[in-house]
Amino acid sequence: MNHLPKKVFLILLTWVFVSACSVEGRLASKFIKQQSQVSLLLYPPDFLYKTNLKAFEIEGADTADKHALDSMLYFSSKYVQFVPEKQFIEAYVNAFLSELQDRKLNVYLPGDSLLFAGNSGEKFVVGMVQTQLEEDVEQLRQDEVALAYYNLGDILINIVRLNAWFEITNFNSYGAKTTAFAQEETSDMISGRLRFYPLLSEFRYQYRVDTLTFTKISEMAVSAGKLFAGYLTDHLMNDYIDRNLPQGVTRNEYLSYSEKSNPKLTRAGDRRFQIIR
To answer: Which of 173, 159, 163 is nearest to 216 (CA)?
Structure first.
């Protein structure tokens, strides 16, 4: 008697919010079982764009020439101007590649394009067409800190985002192309607690700021690479579902597949690529 591989058995046992007998679920399981036959030709980014959005810190920003303002913003940035481009991209791309390989996808770089083209099975060209570091500040709302937030005045936190655009081309479908966007971020962290002062008859929120560091930004490069690789795999899986649904049937949910210690299919929610076109 043949036995299901352990991973496939776990997948079937650990559906979350998805019926095991649904059409989408069966197609997703089929894609997962054969994803080792999927090949990707990956074009990594060759440049890291850096943007500072804190124009409020620049005197005369409202009347400055755009190019001059961009330059002033860059050189007044607290973080992005000092992030080493080569090391950041390398960490990001290596994490992206590693996660795809952990998911058993065949990944080729441009130098191996002939090997990629000669593979059977489904093939996709993936361009990491633009990668941008964006520095900004955000104001914490009252309900994000404490009910007595009004005693604090404004709390501004530093935030650095990684914005990434991808072009995904189905090599087997006459160049059908999708443009997708993904974002990850890291920021200052606020921690504290409410205390009641009897003499003042009021609550006050005591807090401290765990300041954003360059180590956190470097860690974000790795976490974003892994996260976006998962988004890409989910996109390919849901695209496979769409292309193989019976006529007249539409997909009800955008699914996500986790390869961690407890493999499972879930609803992706907002943790997915944003499709631009």
So the answer is: 159
Query: Which residue type occupies 64?
Result: A
The CA-atom distances, in angstroms, between 146 and each of 142, 156, 212 are 6, 15, 21
Rounded-to-10 torsion of CA 85, 88, 90, 96: -140
3-state secondary structure of 137: strand
Alpha carbon distance 45, 225 (integer Å): 12
d(CA 18, CA 24): 9
> pLDDT tens digits for the chain (277 residues)?
455 554 554 444 444 444 434 888 899 999 999 989 999 999 999 999 999 998 877 766 676 777 778 888 899 999 999 999 999 999 999 999 999 999 999 999 999 999 999 988 899 999 999 999 999 998 865 455 554 444 455 678 899 999 999 999 999 877 689 999 999 999 998 776 767 778 777 766 667 778 999 999 999 999 999 999 999 999 999 999 999 998 888 888 899 988 766 678 888 989 999 999 8
CA dihedral sign of residues 18, 21, 27, 33: positive
Q: Are 255 and 267 in contact (CB under 8 A)?
A: yes
Instruction: Work out whether strand 106-108 and strand 39-43 pair parallel, antiparallel, or are unpaired.
Output: parallel
Amino acid residing at 225: G
Q: Which of 89, 76, 99 is nearest to 133 (CA)?
A: 89
pTM of the predicted structure, to 2 decimals: 0.83
- Report how far residue 170's alpha carbon sits from residue 99's, in angstroms, rounded to the nearest whole number: 20
